[in-house]
Amino acid sequence: MITSPLGPKVQNYNYSLQILRGIAALMVVIYHVKGYTNIVGNNPDTLVNYIPQIFGLGAPLFFCISGFVMAMLIESNYPNFLYRRFLRIYPPFIVAAILVIFAKAALLGDGSYNKLIHALTLLPLGTTPTYPLNVEWTMIYEVLFYIVCSLFTLKHCKRFFLLFLVVWGIVITIAHNVFGTPSSELTTIKLIPFSTYNYFFIIGAIVYYISKFKKINSVKINYTMIFLSTSTLLTLYYVVLKNSVLLMRFNFLIFAVLFGFIVYFVVNIQAKKSTFFVKCGNYSYGIYLIHAQTLYIVLTLWGRQFPVNELASSLALIITLFVSWYFGKFEYTLHKKLKEFKAPTITRKQIIAAASVCILLISSVSIQRVNSMKPKEIAVTLDSTFDATQVLDDKVNAGWVDTISDIDVWKNQTISITGWAIDPFLTTRALSVIMVSEDKIVPTELEWYERKALADILKSDSVMMSGFILTAKSKHFHDGENNIDVYAVTEDNKYIRLQTESPVIINKSK
Fold first, then answer.
1. Mean pLDDT, all residues of the chain
2. CA distance 238 to 482
3. Which among 150, 95, 142, 87 has a CA at the least distance from the CA of 339?
4. 495 Cβ partners below 8 Å, 6+ apart?
């Protein structure tokens, strides 16, 4: 739990937030049971597929809570802000990474990582490094927000923080809606400040300032508003947003505002210190760090001997909760011990020197990333006609479409599709990946990245680089509905349609 010099009242805020943090942690774990069962079991038809997709918003809920807490710490003149934040993030992360690396090497024979040192910096370096825990994307956003907040811990800057948050939110909105700036999980230094994921930090911080000046004491009103906010969130997520192109443009902002309402009413409730969910919140960072790879290891070991079914998923969930709980308990104890260390006394010259070293380090890593990145492959020529006679039987599995950044788009927006694609006959990475709409091959750019889990499942290092990011401009689609298919291209230029959870339809507004 984050403590503060603001006294007992803020402690109650923290207990309330810890309960919400605990719920968010459980949402993420349960959501990943679905994801890893499908990855390891090659999308088996199990009851796990009925886990609500909205549980995937557990991570953004963490962001909103973090925004609230960081604003509180800035207002409380929290000493040595960035030093303590980094002490909170990095030591447990390094410990978890070491444990996972050794566990996967010992149990799965998995020991290769691309640019591991770069991954451990938690800098926004895109998809180039292999992240050992597979959850680092959220921590990359957290580190950015901590760095931004640290600037406003300076004496004469604190009073401008709220104004900065509003301006930052406006800039993100313009970048996303006018210039079509993409928002991805494994983002880059260039794009991360404009990502719509930052809405959750911004709204969370703004909610702190609202709660500071206006507090609702009625328990009945607070619980009623939490229920109404949650109901509105569910309705928008499952009903309204799917039928409104305009609202889909602002989906993350809408979710962030609704999470903000929930956080605001939660902090008005006086929570008890000793509850299960408070402990879950206390241990949430440790739970988050270790849970994904624990799920993966258990399911992979099971899958080598038995089919991945409901029993496997249930067993993996139980083992993961057990392991994650005790690692979370260890991490919480470690955090309390590390808090006892006094920050070293630093002079202004040392701060300038350290800042210079950090800038040089970030520049060096960024340059190395740019130099190491292969140029993006142009997948197809403009508006090529698709030869449907070259399509092979859909029963042949050549890969899967994981995510589509946007299905409701507008003029000149960038659309990203991610997944994996192999040549099933050669058991290698597919020759290429194409996007087809209305019997035309859509002009796209294709970039490959590592999919170690897939290589482990197929027991073939030759499919390691089979993860793909396919990007296209919305200007290549006509107004209204566009039916989309994604195909893997084999070595002999045959097409195999990649599997999707449901038909892909891009809706373009005028």
1. 82
2. 21
3. 87
4. 387, 390, 391, 392, 434, 487, 488, 489
